[in-house]
Amino acid sequence: MEAVISFDFQNCFIFILIFLLTFLCFFFFFKKPKDSRVNFDLPPSPPSLPIIGHVHLLLSTLTHKSLQKLSSRYGPLLYLRIFNVPIILVSSASVAYEIFRTQDVNISSRGVTAVDESLVFGSSSFVTAPYGDYWKFMKKLTVMKLLGPQAQEQSRDIRADDIKRFCRNLLDKARKKESVEIGKEAMNLMNNILCKMSMGRSFSEENGETEKLRGLVTESIGLMKKMFLAVLLRRQLQKLGISLFKKDIMGVSNKFDVLLEKVLVEHREKPEKDQGTVMLDVLLAAYGDENAEYKITKNHIKAFFVDLFIGATDTSVQTIQWTMAEIMNNTHILERMREEIDSVVGKSRLIQETDLPNLPYLHAVIKEALRLHPPGPLLPREFQQGCKIGGFYIPEKTTLLINAYVVMRDPNVWEDPEEFKPERFLASSRSGQEDERREQALKFLPFGSGRRGCPGSNLAYMIVGSAIGMMVQCFDWRIEGEKVNMKEAVKGTILTMAHPLKLTPVTRQPPLTWI
Ligand code: HEM
Prior knowledge:
Helices cover 54% and strands 10% of the residues. With 515 residues, it is α+β, with helices and mostly antiparallel strands.
């Protein structure tokens, strides 16, 4: 008898538990968001799967392409849902234009973070900081000092030295008739430049520091999709005490912390004469300034370096790789670039950053590569307040996803959008019309747009411009096969080449005796 009672009690307990769990799941995941009950028209929503909604689309390998298919079928402004979490998907230049023009402040936050205490896009990060006092302070510091004109001038020699080193390395490969993986070479270049510009040092190859840093950046980028999902579901899961992917995220964050703590200690031990010019000095001065508008912490400094390495390296590396790939597939473009460089720079010295303003065609080629292959194809933001877009109502706290990849191939604003035509950027800059330039900026989104747009675009153009300029000026290039395979892949959230670009450099005549 006792056994029967205890059996019934067990069943009853399990039943109550299942009931409670079902109720909680319904409440947190399937209940419609509050605002959708208001009598406003939400944007159209394409068919979705029961319970999970459109989550399968976001988890697909080439998310920007899956979303492109969806928008070409159902329209440029869509209402998607991940369980019951709403997302607004924007896929045309005109809707993106309307949003950036009318809602810039309203969309100047990226939503909650995946894990607050993480150095990787946690609450100390500049990239994920909400639009508020900390972000405003860091933005000012970034634009005026860290990446400002004076800082760029002071760090010019660092970049020139590393471009020369890159060139010598290619010369060595050319002599040995060896091929190079462009992405790997560009990654070394970017890592060296960023380490020296930000910390005044390079990491040592011998004790494996460089490898460790590279590995951490790759690991973080690999985590981006998981982090995006964790961010989307955070408000719901938090109520259940669940923090999605916390272990993975904190694992990388802790490794960054160890590496950066060592950098801070070693920097403090440097003689005073070697301090004062790099980004770390500027950040330490702000940290020690009692009267600063915002009091930053050591964690803010570490998180800023993590932002910098994740935000600046792979994006620039992929731009170098895609640009070279397009040049290899369009030999007439290579010839025109060479003519321009040879006439402006000549054949007796290496191209320099100061030549770049006189090389508009080189600039146009890089812009065209960024248009067709934006390293960050999807731009995530969050609507802070409810608003109206395209006649539809957007509820507050809705995630915004702008498919920059599709906006930059929108046939309504780009002529022959699928073709690689750098000239399109020459025509518009020559017209010099301020309005046209502004409109151009709003449909050309590789660096995002508005106040949360990329503050590193000028630096990126300088590094990518010098690297591509040097490769075109100094070498002929051989590819395996007829054409470069332009198939896409996505690493984390970064758009990359499915088949990494491998080329063999051949020294151009006359020999580069001046390197
Ligand atoms: C070709 C290279 C690069 C590309 C394609 C790129 C692209 C982007 C994009 C798409 C965003 C988001 C913009 C938005 O939401 O509107 C961004 C943000 C950012 N980028 Fe870049 N970036 C590049 C290079 C750099 C460099 C060299 C740096 C710094 C040295 C940098 C630092 C940042 C920072 C700090 C943010 C966050 C800004 C904020 O949230 O206010 N990026 N970048």
